[in-house]
Amino acid sequence: MKTKWVIASDFIAIPQIYAIGFSDDVKVTRHSRAIRNQYIIHYVLSGKGFFNGNIVEKGQGFLIYPDRYSEYRADAREPWSFLWVISEDEKMHRFFERYNACAETGIFQFHNLYALEQSADQIKNATDDFPSSSRLSEFFLHLFHACNAKGETSSAPITKTYFDFSVNYIKSNLHLPLSVGALCDVLGITQPYLYRIFKEFAGCSPKQYILRDKLTQARRLLTQTELSVSHVADAVGFQSVTEFSKFFSSKTALSPTAYREAYLLGKA
Question: What is the value of pTM for the model shown?
Fold first, then answer.
């Protein structure tokens, strides 16, 4: 069986994040005109400054794309402080599109200043100088959602985003032998964190959710199509008919063939 990765068009894979930081030092929060080879997001939390000659104030941010000239500096009288996110992952491009930045300037507005200030405090008080890539991805998605969510201060937006992404990915890839580990790799988050998200929004573990969706799809294919049991097994990501039949029987107390026959007789 060949493996083919398919992602629904509205699913955005989480990019790998190189670094996230905060500073209010005018020497650090400036950069001379140069071409950068990374995707960089800046969120201005206080004061103001200039990005490519345009003023950027508290509650605004600016985007730097790879291979484009950019420069920025703090205002002399009201120097800014800002958070920054750095990534070299091409997947970041699709996230940039969600920031609704001005096409000419690359400057955007963000809504939830409080949440970003809280994030800055976490960075300033962090004891781990080298967080894992999964933790950086989690932190970035929190910033992304806080930036785009209007006035929300709870952690619900980030967890709901991860849950929605997960559900979308699972439904789009039921034909694969999905595992929780593979799902975490795609999302860039840890398994315990994903487990907590699914318990919150689905009342079950990610593994239980995946198997439930596979069972639902298998039932539909057995009762609404004439596909062979072998093809149904393949369609829901099982490597063999034997493996699929064992799974199906454990959930329904009937073999796939018996389930189809019972349905046709109006007994299932």
Answer: 0.60
Q: Do residues 237 and 215 touch, judged by C-beta distance below 8 A?
A: no
Angle at 101 between CA 81 and CA 156, to 5 degrees: 70
Q: How far is residue 34's CA from residue 55's CA, in Å, rounded to a whole number?
A: 18
Query: Are 19-148 and 169-268 the same fold in CATH?
Result: no
Architecture of the domain defined by 169-268? Orthogonal Bundle (1.10)
The SS3 assignment for 263 reads helix
- Edge-first strand listing for the sheet containing 31-36: 31-36, 68-74, 48-51, 54-57
- pLDDT by 10-residue block (mean), the chain, 268 residues: 33 77 92 95 96 96 96 96 94 88 93 83 72 73 72 55 83 89 79 92 96 96 95 94 96 95 81
Q: Where are the domains of the chain?
A: 19-148, 169-268
Residue 229: partners with Cβ closer than 8 Å, 6 or more residues away: 222, 241, 244, 245, 256, 257
Please, what CATH class does the domain formed by 19-148 belong to?
mainly beta
> Angle at CA 215, nearest 5°, toward 214 and 216?
90
